[in-house]
Structure formats: C-alpha cells, structure tokens
Amino acid sequence: MTKAVRFYETGGPEVMQWEDVEVGAPGAGEVRLRHSAVGLNFIDVYFRTGLYPAPLPNGLGMEGAGVIEALGDGVSGLAVGDRVAYAGRPIGAYAEVRVMPADGLIKIPDSIDDQTAAAMMLQGMTTEYLLQRTFPVKKGDTILFHAAAGGVGLMACQWARHVGATLIGTVGSDEKAALAKANGAAHTINYRTENFTDRVREITDGKGVPVVYDAIGKDTFEGSLDCLSPRGLMVSFGNSSGPVENVNLAILGAKGSVYVTRPSLMDYNANRADLEKSASDLIRMVESGAVTVNIGQTYPLSEVRKAHEDLEGRKTTGSTVFTL
C-alpha cells in the first residue's frame, strides 16, 4: 500500500483525503513512478472545486518529479532508475507512487535537483509557450504580466529580462513588488493601492502594451483590455478570481480592435515534438542561470489542505512544492 490524495466530491480544501491506495503494475506504454517531489498549481484548485470537471472519485495534481520503478510493455527511451519529471494530464500527481503514460515524461539532467524539477515543469513550460509562442516577446517590447510574484510570474520576469523586454508586473503587496523587481520586472504595480490601467498608460506614455498576460480572470479582464494598444493581444490563461463570463465581443472593437485568446499548456504541448522542444528550452534556460526557479514554500504532501488554503489566500510566492 502507498499513500495518495483523493477527493470524492468537489468543494473546499476539506474534500481532499490523504489515504491508502493500491498501485498496480504499469500497462502498455506506461511506467510506475515513485515521486520525490510534487508541484502545486492553481489548476489543482480548479479541479478540486469543479470549475474544471473531472470524474469522481479522483486524485489531484498535474506536476511531479521522481524515479521510474517499473516499465510497461512497449516503453522505449526510458529505463528503471531514470529521473524524470512531467506536467500535464492525467491528474493524480498528489501521490507517493503512481502509474502514468510514458510519453508525458521528460528526463531530468543531474544539474537540476528533484524539488526544482517538480516546481519548474508546469509553470516553466507555461512561461515558455506564453512568451515564445502565444505572443513571441522580443527585445524592446513592453508587456504587462499579472500576478508577477507567482510561480509563472517570477519565471516570466526573468525570461522577459533575458530577451531584453520590459515587463510591467502587477502584485498584491510591497513585499511581492520587491520580489518581482528582484527577478527582472522593470515596473511593478500594487493593485491594492493603485489603478493598474492608469499606471500602465502612464508608464507607456499613453500607448498601452501589445500584450497582456492574465491568469487572474474576471477581476482584471476589462481593465486589461484597457491596457492594450490598438490590435493588441489579451492572453487569458487562468482565472484565480473566477472565470470571465458574458463577454460582448463588440467590446473588442470598441477598445481598439484587440484580440483575446484563452490558451492552455495541454494544447500547446499536445504532441511529443512540441513537449520535447518546450521542455528543452526550459531546461536550457534553467541550466544557463537565465531563469531561476523560486520555490517560495514547501509542504509535506500530507498537509495538502493547508497548502491549498495558503494558495487561495494569496499567502504564497513563487512556486510551491510538496515533499515526500
């Protein structure tokens, strides 16, 4: 027997149970993986609350790192004892041991430790596709990134600085502003004390920005549109404040013929070639020191409820890792 987090109904952190589970042998194309560390991401909250539907009962978690214990039939390119990490479906990373598809695993070099590997995959590959593929950020660009002191935000600050872009980051406290600036944000806006739309217009001399990256959702959606320059792109890749609903498309024309996209990592890395390229680019950035993975806090996996409470209460910074 081994331990895992399960939930039988949707709701608050209290619905998660830390219990004994049976893990069988891997089937064709699968491996059995013993986790050494597991990442916490806001998408886990979406599944737990039912915002993103999943069959019940189920596990939680989409990111982890560990060592392969067994291989199923037909698995090639991997061996028992390999250190690997992953980010993506099927959910169920909150577990000491799990069986999962081999084609979602990435080998981790010795230069990257287990906790860093668990913390960097989902947030790091999200940063990669946002800044390299959704809107290819280049030297001289000025961009707006909400939640700049979060896990994706801090990586985006560093990535933007590396390519020579100016990142304006919104944060919820002076402490988070200092953290974002230390990681490369050129400007920070405390949304609790300042109007971020007015400040963006002030910083850009009224021009606005060509792209806004927004994982907040309904609380920032319309203000984000007002930050865009004509024909700019609003990238809505999360909804920590709730989903954006009942949008009148005519507003996009009224605000300068702007665009909106709602991308996901799973679509951008849907095939193996894209996954390998995304992970390779991320690993190269981390190994070179251009991007440092900021692990702001760790929790034993058995304390999963406390971790979710802190995440939803905006008490966390950077990446969060569960230890086993």
Automatic annotation (TrEMBL):
Against PROSITE patterns, the record matches this protein to: QOR_ZETA_CRYSTAL (PS01162)
Does the record bear Metal-binding in its keywords? no
What name appears for this protein in its UniProt entry?
Answer: Quinone oxidoreductase
User: Domain of life here?
Assistant: Bacteria
Q: Residue ranges of the Enoyl reductase (ER) domain? A: 11-322
Q: Which UniProt key words apply to this protein?
A: NADP, Oxidoreductase
Per the record, a Pfam family? ADH_zinc_N
| Species for this entry | Sneathiella marina
State the NCBIfam families in the record. Answer: PRK10754.1
Key word Transport present: no
